[in-house]
Amino acid sequence: MQSPPPVRNRRAPLPFFRQLFFSGFIYSKVTRYFEGRSASFGQRSRMSNREKFDRDLTILLSRLTVDAEPEVENKLNMLKDWLIKLQKENVVKINHSVMELVCAKHLIQKGYEVQIEYPLNEILTCDLYGIKGLGNLVVEIETGFIPPENALAPLTYTTARLASKIIRYSTFAGKFALGVPPHYILPFPRTLAKPPRNRSEQEIGQIKNLCDAYYQKPPVTVEEIRNARIQEIYIIDVDRSLVQEIDPETYLKRAMQKGIVPDYITQEL
């Protein structure tokens, strides 16, 4: 016959109030510990984002200045410092800023005095603003971002946004251009690439209806549409630090011939 297992010594249970005290004390300590860890992690994460922004611009600048004249290098360094300042204020993002710097070098080498994130009025700030002699240039960078609320009509929304940009920004420019990465096709209305005298009232009305469907604060005017124009497309290749210029009509014609972008203004919107 087997003997019964030995009886283990067990601690007497803690009185109710002592259990409550210790459980509350431990919970408080654990909560404070993890809150502190979370705050510390968040701070490190924010710091690393800033450091990464600075690092990426430094790497890009080393590519851009390999064959650059000292004057061009100095101007690019000043623009880089300006972008770092804006990033600390949460004004700019790295994917946008690298395209601005690559385009800035292209414009500086063409004789422009360039500023980045330049205010045109109390509402509009352009991505790049260039002055050359008595003329000026405004460039807006487009990366193809679609807000979640427009997920079901991305092409229509993008067409309206680009039309609105061309109309609003070209008012302040002797020459207006859109900058785009090589992997993204701009679906802006072909009408806005034509000289103003070649636009019909029907085309102007269609663009007005398209813009009003998305932008009402303030709405674009018929007169603004009549006089607006895009003169250049800059294809900005960050990987190779190159910029290719192309005429807007040629750009759209090629895209439509391949069936990539429909001519939205031929449709009733």
Structural overview:
The protein folds into 2 domains: 17-111; 142-269, no CATH class. The protein has 7 helices and 6 strands; from the N terminus they run αααβββαβααββα. The protein has helices at 16-64, 70-88, 94-109, 154-169, 201-212, 222-227, 248-257; strands at 113-119, 125-132, 135-141, 175-180, 232-237, 242-246. The chain is an alpha/beta fold and 269 residues long. It has a 6-stranded mixed β-sheet with strand order 1-2-3-4-5-6, sandwiched between helices. The longest helix is centred in the N-terminal third of the chain and has 49 residues, at 16-64. The model has no long low-confidence stretch (mean pLDDT 85). The chain is globular and about 50 Å long.
Relative helix content: 40-55%
Overall mean pLDDT stands at 85
Q: Give the helix tally.
A: 7
Largest sheet: 6 strands, mixed
- The rounded distance between the terminal residues' Cα atoms is 95 Å
Would you report the number of β strands? 6
Strand content bin: 5-15%
Structural class: alpha/beta
The tally of domains stands at: 2
Shape: globular
Tell me the series of helices and strands, N- to C-terminal.
Answer: HHHEEEHEHHEEH
Q: What order do the strands of the largest sheet run in, or round the barrel if closed?
A: 1-2-3-4-5-6
Low-confidence runs of at least 5 consecutive residues? none
Q: State Rg.
A: 29 Å
